Amino acid sequence: MRFGRQQWSTASLLILMVKVISGHTLKCQPAEYQIRDECCPLCPAGSRVKTDCKVDRSTSCLPCLSGTYMDHPTGLKKCLICTNCDKGSGLKTKKPCTITSDTVCEPLEGFYCAKSSDNDCDVAKKHRSCEPGQYISKKVMEPSQMDHLHPVDHTHSVNQTFRC
């Protein structure tokens, strides 16, 4: 009877080890992506995966279509959609989208960048106007930081409004 129990314990341990080993995750290289139990080569920036690799063939890639981009090597099947710099939101295109980079936006004249990331303006807000007879003493990003001063030389028209 003791022999049977030890045999059962050994078998249980063996089953447990097999489950742990078989549950071991595949570790792909940085230039690869995992699909099922295979490591496939990534597609280069500016393209996307058409078909995943298999034992007998490598990853097949397609270039991104107009209006889409991929700025890094990828295992994705779709390229990312280019950002639209919306004039109604006070933005204009600084640098157009290419297959390897997203659109870069900047504020329209009379607007300032209220939220930015990576040299790109995400949110623009309209500058307030100075009161007649005032001028901008220094240029800053936030309109709340602008100093409105009365001109000392009286060269500004009292009826003219200047952008802040």
UniProtKB/TrEMBL annotation:
Classification via InterPro entries: Fas_rcpt (IPR008063), TNFR/NGFR_Cys_rich_reg (IPR001368)
Q: How does it sit in the membrane?
A: Single-pass type I membrane protein
Keyword match Membrane: yes
Instruction: Supply the alphabetized keyword list.
Output: Disulfide bond, Glycoprotein, Host-virus interaction, Membrane, Phosphoprotein, Receptor, Repeat, Signal, Transmembrane, Transmembrane helix
Q: Which GO terms describe its molecular function?
A: transmembrane signaling receptor activity
CDD domains named among the record's database cross-references: TNFRSF14_teleost
Identify the residues that the record assigns to the TNFR-Cys domain, covering every copy: 63-105
Q: Which cysteines are joined by disulfide bonds?
A: 64-79
Any single Gene Ontology cellular-component annotation = external side of plasma membrane
SMART domains attached to this UniProt entry: TNFR
Signal peptide per UniProt: 1-23
Provide the residue intervals of the TNFR-Cys repeats.
63-105
Q: Name one Pfam family in it.
A: TNFR_c6
A Gene Ontology biological process term: negative regulation of alpha-beta T cell proliferation
Coarsely, its chief localization is membrane
The record's listing under Gene3D superfamilies reads: Tumor Necrosis Factor Receptor, subunit A, domain 2 (2.10.50.10)
Write out the annotated subcellular location: Membrane
**PANTHER family in the record, alphabetically?**
TUMOR NECROSIS FACTOR RECEPTOR SUPERFAMILY MEMBER 14
UniProt protein name: Tumor necrosis factor receptor superfamily member 14-like isoform X2
